Amino acid sequence: MISLKLLRLLRGKNQFELSLETQIPSYRLSLLENGKAEPKTEELKRLAKALETTTDRLMVKVDEGVLVGG
Q: Which domain holds residue 17?
Protein backbone atom coordinates (compact mmCIF):
# COMPACT_ATOMS: atom_id res chain seq x y z
CA MET A 1 0.00 0.00 0.00
CA ILE A 2 2.85 2.29 -0.84
CA SER A 3 0.62 4.61 -2.86
CA LEU A 4 -0.98 5.74 0.42
CA LYS A 5 2.00 7.94 1.23
CA LEU A 6 2.13 9.30 -2.31
CA LEU A 7 -1.56 10.21 -2.28
CA ARG A 8 -1.26 11.72 1.20
CA LEU A 9 1.62 13.92 0.07
CA LEU A 10 -0.18 14.91 -3.13
CA ARG A 11 -3.13 16.04 -1.02
CA GLY A 12 -0.78 18.13 1.14
CA LYS A 13 -1.49 16.26 4.35
CA ASN A 14 0.89 15.02 7.00
CA GLN A 15 0.31 11.82 8.98
CA PHE A 16 -1.03 13.69 11.98
CA GLU A 17 -3.67 15.50 9.90
CA LEU A 18 -4.70 12.29 8.16
CA SER A 19 -4.85 10.53 11.51
CA LEU A 20 -7.23 13.14 12.91
CA GLU A 21 -9.43 13.03 9.82
CA THR A 22 -9.64 9.23 9.62
CA GLN A 23 -9.42 8.34 13.33
CA ILE A 24 -6.58 5.96 12.42
CA PRO A 25 -3.59 6.35 14.79
CA SER A 26 -0.42 7.86 13.28
CA TYR A 27 1.60 4.76 14.16
CA ARG A 28 -0.88 2.64 12.19
CA LEU A 29 -0.67 4.98 9.19
CA SER A 30 3.10 4.62 9.28
CA LEU A 31 2.81 0.82 9.28
CA LEU A 32 0.40 0.95 6.34
CA GLU A 33 2.57 3.37 4.37
CA ASN A 34 5.64 1.22 4.86
CA GLY A 35 3.92 -2.03 3.93
CA LYS A 36 4.33 -3.50 7.39
CA ALA A 37 0.58 -3.94 7.91
CA GLU A 38 -2.42 -4.70 5.74
CA PRO A 39 -5.35 -2.29 5.91
CA LYS A 40 -8.70 -3.33 7.29
CA THR A 41 -11.73 -2.69 5.08
CA GLU A 42 -12.98 0.13 7.29
CA GLU A 43 -9.54 1.78 7.27
CA LEU A 44 -9.48 1.68 3.47
CA LYS A 45 -12.88 3.36 3.30
CA ARG A 46 -11.85 6.13 5.70
CA LEU A 47 -8.56 6.71 3.90
CA ALA A 48 -10.21 6.80 0.48
CA LYS A 49 -12.72 9.38 1.68
CA ALA A 50 -10.07 11.57 3.33
CA LEU A 51 -7.77 11.40 0.31
CA GLU A 52 -10.59 11.87 -2.21
CA THR A 53 -9.87 8.64 -4.06
CA THR A 54 -11.10 5.06 -4.32
CA THR A 55 -10.15 2.05 -2.26
CA ASP A 56 -8.83 0.42 -5.45
CA ARG A 57 -6.49 3.36 -6.05
CA LEU A 58 -5.12 3.04 -2.54
CA MET A 59 -4.10 -0.55 -3.24
CA VAL A 60 -1.98 0.29 -6.31
CA LYS A 61 1.66 -0.65 -5.77
CA VAL A 62 4.53 1.69 -6.60
CA ASP A 63 7.86 0.04 -7.38
CA GLU A 64 11.02 2.12 -7.73
CA GLY A 65 9.12 5.13 -9.03
CA VAL A 66 7.08 3.15 -11.54
CA LEU A 67 3.34 2.77 -11.10
CA VAL A 68 2.42 -0.91 -11.19
CA GLY A 69 -1.08 -2.29 -11.60
CA GLY A 70 -3.16 0.75 -12.15
A: 3-68
